[in-house]
What does this fold into?
Amino acid sequence: MKYVLFPFLVYSVLMATGCSRPESPQEVSEAFWQAVLEEDAEAAADYSTLVDEAAFDGFEQQWQNVSIEWGRVVIDDNLARVTTTLSGLEGQNEATESLTYLVRKGDDWLVDYYRTGDALKQGPVWGSLVGQLEKLGEDLKSRWANQSDEMAVELERLGRELQQQAQSMNEDMSALAEEYGDQLSQHLEALSESLREALKSTPSATPQDRRTLNETVIRLEDQREQLSEVNLKTLAESTATAAEAQLQLGELSEEFAAYKAEWRQRVVDMQAEMAEFLENLKTR
It folds into this structure.
């Protein structure tokens, strides 16, 4: 079925559904792309993984006179993809077939903004998902091997030590672990809020810097949710997430120099608390 997306289409859909929020992956995809075509940053952020409308860049495309065809919808647990064919893109004589990727957060489907943008830039995407994940894993290993950020490396080492402790200890949570989990959750929340502030207050940031901030916020907030059930495994994973965040934030341009100093200090504090927690575990 082919849709040429104009404002009246959204109006008709809203009238028919009683102004309810789109629910299925295809409905969310349609609402998201309508927002993109209209350059409605607020709506695009609402229907996607963008943490703030300040990160919206319209995929750096011109959207006048673009029409969209929807194809196959594939749902795999909390992930989905919708085959999306766009006609009328600037500089493209033929229709461009791509994929709109979605993730489920709680009860809502959201378009995975940056993965969808990558798919659009790359054209047809028929590669193996397993192959993509393997490549991502190798990229991360390579990045760790080439990094010289001592704070991040030390935090990652402490996380591995905590995982080793978890293997030899009873998983029942002590008051000590609960207390540390609360501290770690507060650090992740404060760091996430600071990243959101940096994103909003730096409109001149490059697309890559906006992407780095957006994706780091998502990881931090997802990991913080995991701390709702505190155990040694989630504590170790949260520490590793913070270490990776430190590496990524270090790659931001000097436009964020003041923020980077603040973020680095928070990682220093996390490192100290982590070391103290491990020492207390050993003495029990």
